[in-house]
Fold:
Amino acid sequence: MSTRPVLEATDLKVAYGGNLALDLPRIAVRERELVGVVGANGAGKSTLVNGLLGWSRGSPKVSGSVMLDGKDISKFPPHERVKSGLLLIPEGKLVFTQMSVEENLAATGGAPPAGQGRRHYSVEDVYALFPRLYERRHHLGSQLSGGERQMLGIARALRLGPRVLLLDEPSIGLAPRLVSTVLETVRSLVDSGLTVLLVEQNVRAAIEVVDRLVLLERGRIIAEGPASEMRDDPRIAEAYLGAHVA
Amino acid sequence: MNSGMKAGLLAVLAVVGFFVPMLLGGSGAVYAACVLIAIFAVMSYGLDIVVSDLGEVSLAHTVFFAVGAYTTALLSASAGLGPILSLAGAILMSLLVATALGFVTLQLREFVFSLVTYAVAVVAATIAQNWSLLGGSDGLRGIPAFEIPLLSFTARNDQELWPVAYLLLLAAIYLVSAFRRSRLGQAAMMVHLNQRLAVTSGVDPQRIRLQVFLVSAPITAAAGWLYAYQRAYISADVLETYFLILMLTAVVVMGRRLLLGPLLGVALIQMQEKFFSFGGYVDKIILGSVLILTLAFLPNGLFGTLAPLRKLFTRRAAPLGKPIPERS
Amino acid sequence: MNFTQQLVNGIVLGHAYALIAIGWTVLLGVAKLVNFGHGQMYMLGAFVTWYGVSRLGLPYFMAIPMAMLVGVAVGYVMQRVMLQLTLKQDLVSIMIVTLGFGYVLHGAAALFFGSTGQILETPFSTKDIYWGDLWFTYQDIAIVVAAILFFAALKYVIDRTRIGRLARMVAEDPQLAQLAGVNVRRVYLGVFAFEGAAVALAAALVAPRTPILTSMGFDEVIITFVVVVLGGIGSVTGSYMAGLALGLFTAFFGAFVSPAYATAAAFAVLIAVLVIRPGGLAVSPGGR
Structure:
């Protein structure tokens, strides 16, 4: 296993107006690693994944470098980063509601280039992972339940041959039992070779599945480390309590 | 610069402005140009509050201009009424049309609203061309000279009409400034910038839009009123696209919500037509291009790129379009 | 003017209207953009075809692609200039910019082609057909055939091809489409180029029916607007049906009530519909 991280962002700063929303000296995800980024609302979690994609609502000023497999993609527009294998499953809008499940899964540009560590998932692979989607393959996106949409969102991203998968708060709006299912699915994807950066507000659920945890507060990293160590960290307990109360 | 100094400066400008045509030589051509600038500026001020404050594109303001002009023509030539009464008539008719238009477009979204206003203007042009009451394609002639016997005031040419034009201009500018400071003006900005927030603050966007329309229509109609007297002849060509493009360019070329923006914009365009003209069609190309280039590349207008001068005028930077709704 | 003749007129007119509106169906449906320069682009298509046929001596069949190419170029330039505004979804500025473009096209066309009316004569338009009491020309047949073919092709492309799927993705959610690797800029440019080509083709086919002036185009925008809104924004089948309905309405109204006010009447009908159902008869974006 190479020691160079798959995804590495250095000196990533995102500012809205004069306000520095995110200031990270370094964040990295290694091959086959599931990194969790947690923090309260407004801590900068979504800003982080949007900044990695090079795309955001509003007009932020983004500086710093983003490297994918050692290649600098900082100047690439979002759709180019996607084509290079950096995929984001955004919070909220996950699927095309006016298209059927089948159509949602149809790849946009043929099979992604083989090799380069990109996992290729065929339509059959995806249906095998998510049998429910196969059952509902002719249904429109708007007819799916919240949990099914989350699954379809992940399935769509898999179909694009991810090198790194970014997930923005997959647990939002899901019942607790579904949250566990979704996160466990992510864990098993990582176990079978995928590399994932997971952004979550639900610390308790996230800490069960991630390898490493990063705690954000007001746009800065205030703690990070292996999940086992972070479990005992008082700041996590505070964040956990905070998230629990909120 | 505090508001006291600003008010003082504006008052000085208001007095000095009256003497501009004299300072420029006082010839008939100069007076004609100044009167036209004043008329077109007033016309543009009406559109200004709809576009810059409310944030909607109304393409029907040429209709209000035409309503003002035609009403004046009919009342003064056929019914023999004086200027004050014909102004009242013009304002009244414009309010009626604005109300009808406002109700019809009440529920319409942005671009459907604009399309409807566009179509209304085209239909109005068809009506003006074909309705004998409005003179059909010949138009209405015989508009008498501007005369108020009570004040022993008669304006037989542009030089004598200038005081009227200037007063109208001052009135329009004052009205727009008062509007922006009023509750209606604040509400309009709220609806423009963040409709959701406005609604949760108890503001009814549809009612606000209707009310802004009712304030803006008479201003443009008043310009039409004076235009009828200035030209002594009104025909369907007051509904030409030229006036619409002129208004829109005047409103955006200087910058957003600048008090003197439309006036300066109109002056600039009229000067181009008088001194740098290469023929009617080339002028069209120039005017259209100015509009396109301003919106596409200079969203803050000419003033926005001359930063120090920004301080002289009241200004809040407001985007012309609606911002992307925020995800929660 | 008997009933059947007006029925024939109405059908031809309806297909003409549908053809003129096809660019907007895609533009509004996919990119949610409005093009107020549409009427002038139509005028330009008509005049370029006329110029090719009468001044350059080209055969009609070569003048049509020439007009379409000019249309594509104009559409492309427009969108290229407006690109930032499109990406920011600044609809207000976009509307005014397209209006400005229309005005510039008007000035440029008048400068280049003159301001007198012209007749675009084609090998089709001069051949009359008499069928019993009915009269129409080969041009009319060409319009109907072209409209049907074009609409069928468009429906097929949108529903069943990859490009159509890309367009529907961008129509529903441009940001999500970006996340799926779609080059949204290129889609917007393509859509505007399509609008340019489509309206030019429509002009080349329909303009021979009446004299053309460089000051024309406004009625065409209203007609297109009525067709697209009545048919349901973004709906290909809807636009076709609405075009047909509008054509029949205009033919009968023009013959039995008043020709000058036909467009105004159609617009009045639209207003009535919009007042009753403010959403228009809208289909959601990306819908068929």
About this structure: The domain at 7-245 of chain A is CATH 3.40.50.300 (Rossmann fold).
